[in-house]
Amino acid sequence: MKTLKKRSSELALASIVDESSSLPSPLLPASILEAWSSLDPSVKAALIASDNASSSTQPTKDSSVSSLTSTASSTSDDGEKTELGVIVEEDKEAGTKTVMRPLERAPKNVFEITKTTSHESTRIEKTSSSTVVTKTTIMTTAKGWRNVFSLPISYDVNMVPNGTLLDPRNLQMLEATGFHPEGYNRRYAVIDEEVDSLYGDKIRDYFTAHGIELHTTVIKGGEPDKRPDAVDTILDAMCKYKLRRREPFLAIGGGVVLDIAGMAACLYRRGVPFVRVPTTLLAIVDASVGVKNGVDYCCAVTADTYKNRVGSFYAPSSCLLDTSFITSQDARNVSNGFGEILKLALVRSQDLFELLETHGHALVESRFAKCASVPDGVAQRVIDLSIQIMLEELGPNLWEHTLERCVDYGHTFSKLLEMVPGVDIMHGEAVNIDGFFCCLLAYLRGFITMDTVERVFNCMQALCLPTTSSHLKADLAWQSCKDAVEHRHGAQRIPLITGIGESVCVSDVTPEEIGRALELLEKFDHQKSGE
After folding, report:
1. How many CA within 13 A on the CB side of residue 218?
2. Tens digits of per-residue pLDDT, 424-456?
3. How do residues 169-210 score in pLDDT, each as one tens digit?
4. In 19-50, which positions are buried (b, 16+ CB within 10 angstroms) versus exposed (e)?
5. 223 and 426 in contact (C-beta within 8 Å)?
6. Cβ-based neighbours of 319, under 8 Å, separated by 6 or more
7. Is 379 in a helix, a strand, or coil?
8. Burial of 301 (C-beta count, 10 Å sphere; 0-12/13-18/19+)
9. pLDDT above 90 covers what percent of the chain?
10. How far is the C-alpha of 413 from the C-alpha of 431, rounded, in Å?
11. Which has the closest alpha carbon to 402: 391, 411, 394, 413?
12. Which DSSP letter does residue 507 get?
């Protein structure tokens, strides 16, 4: 019997050529064999010679596998063949094509790139008798490397059983500060000055009960204190304490302190873990659950102060939420927190709005403590819904690559309101004034009815929130729109509600429109004004 080749095509040909062989079954159907037999002998000879010639240039079976690994190709949508593992990016608008070839030692992260850029220009020359159009295309090629790394972000927002966070039997705060070698019996915390006066002894006693010495830095937590020098104070203290690179520290206080401490955490040793422990309603539903940190910045060139102009996206290692802290706030601060909660209700949740509409005033008076005027479960439901909605909106867009954000509702005109020299407007109050003004803009556009406007207005009044300010004038409002264009990358992107729990972003608000909304604002019977 003739020795058969290893390639499948040669096996098939051998079964035809060696017709005298007694194979148990043919490798080709009988119809193919009959067709072969009917061919002229000279044609058969030519086909056999051709196949033998090609087989002499083919690699062996082992080298064929190796060859496929290095030269196999795939076909892209436009029909162009590329090597396996190679990524081709095309930006037709920019006229660029980038070919990325993975490097052997880091094939998922580091790529050798070749970028081709095409620039086309057109020149038109007119003479008395003709028009000459000349199109010129310039191709440039650049080489380099691209480093690709997806930063894993994961942090738990933990609801602590009410009133138990500072109980030494509850180990959540101790465990949040990390596990350390035996004998490492110290921890570091940044504490809001007001919180320290109310809870400082209990915080220190908690760690003393576990044989740990707590080192603290106490800072002021008011809006005027949200400045870079507060960050420096924490950094100095960290250097003195010699905070380890993987040692989580505690940030305990309101939103201002959490923002300042988060900024320090991002900067120290290029990033150390920190645990947020919010102690105000506003911080529990807003500052504690996202990844933004920052401070206001006083510019030496323009002599202006810019709200949250310097900051970072830096996630905490975890958050510990104990709503019992709210009971130590005064009524104004509780209402201030509702400014952010109502914002979320207006753009995302009719259910949350109805809870505020029905129980909001009682919740302000009770400060989220159990009372006969608020049914069981309502206070916790308001907190849970607020946090869940905020996380749902922030989670897929942590770095704000998408700038059309419904959670920016109430944050267009409020920024400049808060920065008016000498003004006494808290953040949630300013957000609410902005939010009601945006309701009027939505009404003037026909997005909502006057019944909806009045329903929102009544809910704001019940929550003891201001709905206007003498500082909200046409020039400030229009400057806010221009600032929004700068902050939101070339467009206003102002969220307006289209109904309770629904919203859209618009980018065409005009000075005339603002003027009409301000005139309408004056017609309401405002019980509170932000001054």
Report:
1. 12
2. 999 999 999 999 999 999 999 999 999 999 999
3. 999 999 999 988 888 999 999 999 999 999 999 999 999 999
4. eeeeeeeeeeeeeeeeebeeeeeeeeeeeeee
5. yes
6. 155, 156, 157, 158, 275, 276, 277, 278, 288, 289
7. helix
8. exposed
9. 73
10. 8
11. 394
12. -
From CA 430, how far away is CA 444, in angstroms rounded?
21
Two structure tokens written together for 372: 């006969």
Single-letter amino acid code for the residue at 123: R
Judge whether 292 counts as a catalytic residue. yes
- Model pTM? 0.78
Average pLDDT over every residue of 148-176: 94
Residues 6 or more apart from 217 whose CB is under 8 A from it?
188, 189, 190, 191, 233, 234, 237
Q: How far apart are the first and last CA of the chain?
A: 105
**Residues contacting residue 34 through CB under 8 Å, at least 6 positions apart:** none
User: Over the stretch 344-374, which tens digit does the pLDDT of each residue have?
Assistant: 999 999 999 999 999 999 999 999 999 999 9
Residue 410's pLDDT band (cuts 50, 70, 90): very high
Catalytic residue among 97, 143, 220, 292: 292
